[in-house]
Fold this sequence. Notes:
Number of strands of chain B: 14
Oligomer: heterodimer
CATH class of the largest domain in chain B: Alpha Beta
Structural class of chain A: mainly alpha
CATH superfamily of the largest domain in chain B: P-loop containing nucleotide triphosphate hydrolases
Largest sheet of chain B: 6 strands, mixed
Helix content of chain B: 40-55%
Number of helices of chain A: 13
Number of domains of chain A: 1
Amino acid sequence: MFAIYRKEMRSYFINPIGYVYLGVFLVFSALLCCYTTLISGSYDTSSYFTFLIMTFIILIPILTMRLFAEERKLRTEQLLLTAPVTITGMVLGKYFAALTVFVSGVLISCINFIPLYIIGNAERAGTESNLKHIGPITGEIVGSVIAVILLGAALIAVGTLISALTENQLSAAVITIGVIAAMVLLNVFNMLTDSDGQYLIGVYAVRAVIDWVSVLSRFSAFSNGIFDYAALLYYVSLAFVFLFLTVRVYEKRRWG
Amino acid sequence: MIKIEHLVKNYGSNCAVDDISFEVESGEIVGFLGPNGAGKSTTMNILTGYLSSTSGKASVAGIDILRDPIGAKKQIGYLPEQPPLYLDMTVEEYLSFNFNLKRCRLDRAQHIEEVCETVKIKDVYHKVIRTLSKGYRQRVGIAQALIGKPKVIIFDEPTVGLDPKQIIEIRNLIRSLGKDHTVILSTHILQEVQAVCDRIIIINKGKIVANERTENISNMVENNRRFNVKIAGPQKDILAMLKGMSGIAYAEALAERDGDAYTYMIESEYGVDIRKKLFYQLAERNWPLVGMEALGMNLEDIFITVVDKSEEYKAVGTNVRNRIKRRPRGQEKSALEREVGASLYEDAQRQRSESSLSAASEDDDE
């Protein structure tokens, strides 16, 4: 598993893909941070994280599309599957490589918060009373970063499964974009209203189900500054389920 | 070392491998011979744990591939039909990756150097695999299989797509590997197994047709003395003479023509060298012998011969086609033929009838 992890990490950074991903991600996050906090004159980072999750729709497929599709196309998966490695080990090695690149991107993007702290400190120094907290709330940021990482982990697992199902990187990417977009944007339907201000989806049960399934609506607690263990568990189980399915896809193919 | 028992693999309703059993002793080089789609690759893929069998057992060094896949895979080095190379890696990185992948406990630098020495890729050690020629890529693939000193090495069509010089080099390499390893290789080229292997397993349509030592198969092949001879002179008389000559089991005129010389296909009887006699006979009649070409046996002929040999016919290698024709109508087929040879016999008979039809139509044209 470790050999495969190292190989994948190496291939992220010997091909342009790792740099493209990190570059684009950092540019997006910096721009978003700029618009949602500095330009709108707010220390509140919740909308920054919400928009950041939207960028995953495009960015995560870049990370996951080649994981298995490429190996199938080049027939190198035969090497991995006949080596003394379990299928679970192979899937996890690849998954953790993608996850590492993703997490490092998120962690590096935390430099975006430095200006907020600087400005916050300056403003606090300017005021006399110490009654009101001025500046970004560290706890909220840390909680949100953890949640974003786990949410990303779930989406990467989705991309891993789709890459294992396809033989072509491009189709893997397109399908992953579709699926992740559906998962992230599903709860938009809940917000749609007609001209009278009535919800388009009037049935409460349907709204509840959509809310339950939607990845983004589970994130809303973090935006409100609540550390939601249930949501974290939800993301971890999503990741687990999709990785399990990936392993099953390979098991099934052997018996095919 | 390798034991396969009643192996069956179905792809849906299509049966790729149909109840195959064989054993390979330690230190043997065994050739898997068969036409494309015979089930060679499937068998090898099952043996290496890439595919699972529908039923049956496969074990390597006493380890069942299904019960303990990791343990069994550690014993095997495998070169698939298409070498599984990462084109963006250098040879060094690729072999190092394989070293890690197989969790070797040997000294890394020394072992990789040894392997490179064996397959002669030291001069491309630092090159990116993408830039290598087909021959070198194949060698890197072989090097990959050798990493970790596996007891068993499996090559799936190792010489396909190489030039003749490279083919010979790879064959020599495989033969030298046979000293320390048990080797299985698959091919659809008869000469290849003859050149390299101790034992030949012939497989067709998912079944084992023959499992013989190479000498036995070679004898069969060499004893099948078929020639194309080119003789100048009147075609009908020459053909009649050829057919009447003792020692010739079969003769037919081919459509090929070169000036006043026609080409004939003859087949001598078992153990008779017909060439000198033929020359003198022709010289006597003043029909110049313009050319003579020994015909190798193709795979189909061998199947027929092999199946035949297992029957009560003792004179191995004499005219197979005639014997098939001579078989009395309604004669009971032997159990073995029913089992393995039925489809081959049908093929051969269909071929025979087609060729006689075309020969007849050619006669009409004359």
